[in-house]
User: Which sequence fits this backbone?
């Protein structure tokens, strides 16, 4: 495995229209194979930071590099789509296509690899279908492959989301509050799967969480984000109560950004 | 943090009745709005010569007209089959061509999908223009351009319906769950793939329902296109009236009623299935 930073973020700022400063001078390096959990209250900028990594949000200034290549800059003939292909993402609301079957949802992760025309008509090579099924097996949902996605429980839907990310054969998986909508048991299952693919496949995992206890249980490295800035960055075992207080800050109800992660912006992109 | 004030219910009703200056102003505003709306209606009634006495005076004439339609001349029904079928054919092709036109326009006119603001504005403008020109006006234009017959009727329905459908599509697309689109973009999918997997499945039921509604509407509309020479049963209708063959007119109206009812019924059955 390549040693060195998979992701290198330097001096990242993001201002949203309306004067909201979501990120202020964030710098961060993530090495291959890390399991990094991002902590912070809602509106601290975690979602925006994650979305800058795969170019869903374009930063106001600063840069994000993936394997040494700036994201979305089209440098060395590497397109933003090609970069996104190697970064899987899972979401708090799962974001599955509800009316499609589970298998079709997973195959969405193979869209980059397939010809435009045939894939638009939902025609995928047998090889991709087999791979999608094996990814579903990995998350324990092989037998649900031919059901409609919206017939599954929340925890199962999130596991489909993970399978969709896995078929991308990603280097990195970004998880934006992956367990915030789940019951404690499902949350644990999802976190276990994320840890497993991190350890077995060497896929770098960056997840945002707001549950401190869960984070401490799973994380190897914890990054605390507060008001758009990184305030803590250390190994999970070295985290002190003071750090936690620092991240969540004097309990003052701050003027928070409501966590729509600049949707308007990617909508226009 | 400052201590919050608890809400207090006033001890008696009387306190509530005492109106503040602001409340009085709001009442005045309401009265003014109602007065204005009434004035607009009265003014429009004068503009359109609304008159109850005239309506009552006209009753005998109407009765006379209807009596001359009776009994309907059922003998011509067999001659009406071909124009009736043509009417439905016009509606079918008019609607289908409209769908083809409306899909790209609707995508471009959806704020969340349009690739560029200029394209968005252009698509919106085209849709508005198509919608503001009615089928009959389009029919007049196309009859002039391509001659009498059902084909200009097809074109007329296609263009006007494209404006209506495109607007509906755009609205449906703007209401989709943006998270799905985001998730697909995050996989590195091409824009067209994002539309095929993120947008199409979400809007498909509405899309089919709108198209069927439009087909029903276009069958009704196609029955009058013949009035301006654009094919269908409307031509028989206007001819019978011009020749004062009112029993024929009655038979034609019956035919129209039966056709429209049948198409509406079939279409609503289909719609119930997709939703």
Assistant:
């Amino acid at each position: 495995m390549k040693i060195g930073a998979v992701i290198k973020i330097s001096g990242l700022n993001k201002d949203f229209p309306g004067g909201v400063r979501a990120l202020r001078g964030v710098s961060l390096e993530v090495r291959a194979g890390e399991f990094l959990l991002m902590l912070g209250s809602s509106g601290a900028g975690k979602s925006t930071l994650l979305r800058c990594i795969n170019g869903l949000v374009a930063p106001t200034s600063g840069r994000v590099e993936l394997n040494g290549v700036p994201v979305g800059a089209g440098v060395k003939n590497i397109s933003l789509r090609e970069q996104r292909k190697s970064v899987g993402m899972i979401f708090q609301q799962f974001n599955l296509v509800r009316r499609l079957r589970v298998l079709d949802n997973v195959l969405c992760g193979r869209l980059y690899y397939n010809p435009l025309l045939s894939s638009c008509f939902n025609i995928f090579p047998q090889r991709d279908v087999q791979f999608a099924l094996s990814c579903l097996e990995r998350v324990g949902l092989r037998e649900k492959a031919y059901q409609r996605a919206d017939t599954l429980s929340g925890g199962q839907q999130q596991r489909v989301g993970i399978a969709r990310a896995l078929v991308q054969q990603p280097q990195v998986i970004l998880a934006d509050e992956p367990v915030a909508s789940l019951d404690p048991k499902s949350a644990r299952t999802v976190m276990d799967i994320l840890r497993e693919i991190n350890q077995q496949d060497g896929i770098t995992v960056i997840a945002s969480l707001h549950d401190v206890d869960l984070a401490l249980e799973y994380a190897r490295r914890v990054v605390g984000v507060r008001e758009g800035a990184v305030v803590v960055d250390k190994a999970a075992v070295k985290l002190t109560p003071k750090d936690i207080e620092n991240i969540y800050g004097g309990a003052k109800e701050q003027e928070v950004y409501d966590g729509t992660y600049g949707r308007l912006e990617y909508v226009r992109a | 943090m400052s201590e919050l004030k608890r809400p207090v219910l006033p001890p008696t009703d009387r306190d509530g009745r005492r109106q503040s200056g602001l409340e009085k102003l709001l009442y005045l505003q309401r009265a003014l709005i109602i007065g204005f709306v009434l004035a607009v209606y009265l003014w429009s009634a004068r503009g359109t010569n609304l008159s109850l006495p005239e309506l009552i005076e006209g009753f005998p004439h109407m009765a006379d007209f209807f009596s001359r339609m009776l009994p309907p001349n059922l003998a011509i029904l067999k001659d009406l089959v071909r124009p009736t079928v043509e009417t439905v054919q016009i509606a079918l092709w008019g609607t289908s061509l409209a769908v083809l036109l409306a899909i790209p326009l609707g995508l471009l006119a959806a704020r969340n999908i349009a690739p560029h603001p200029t394209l968005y504005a252009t698509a919106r403008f085209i849709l508005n223009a198509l919608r503001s020109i009615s089928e009959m006006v389009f029919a007049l234009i196309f009859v002039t351009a391509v001659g009498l017959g059902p084909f200009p009727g097809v074109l007329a329905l296609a263009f006007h319906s494209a404006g209506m459908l495109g607007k509906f599509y755009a609205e449906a697309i703007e209401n989709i769950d943006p998270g799905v689109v985001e998730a697909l973009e995050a996989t590195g999918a091409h824009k067209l793939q994002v539309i095929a997997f993120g947008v199409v499945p979400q809007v498909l039921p509405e899309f089919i329902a709108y198209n069927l509604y439009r087909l029903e509407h276009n069958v009704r509309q196609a029955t009058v296109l013949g009035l301006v020479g654009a094919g269908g049963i409307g031509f028989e209708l206007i001819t019978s009236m011009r020749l004062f063959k009112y029993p024929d007119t009655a038979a034609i109206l019956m035919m129209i009623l039966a056709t429209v009812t049948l198409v509406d019924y079939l279409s609503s059955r289909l719609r119930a299935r997709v939703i």
Observations:
- The beta strands of chain A are 5-16, 20-31, 35-39, 61-66, 69-70, 87-90, 172-176, 204-209, 221-226, 229-235.
- The CA atoms of residues 52 and 242 of chain A lie 29 Å apart.
- The mean pLDDT of chain A is 86.
- The first strand of chain A starts at residue 5 and ends at 16.
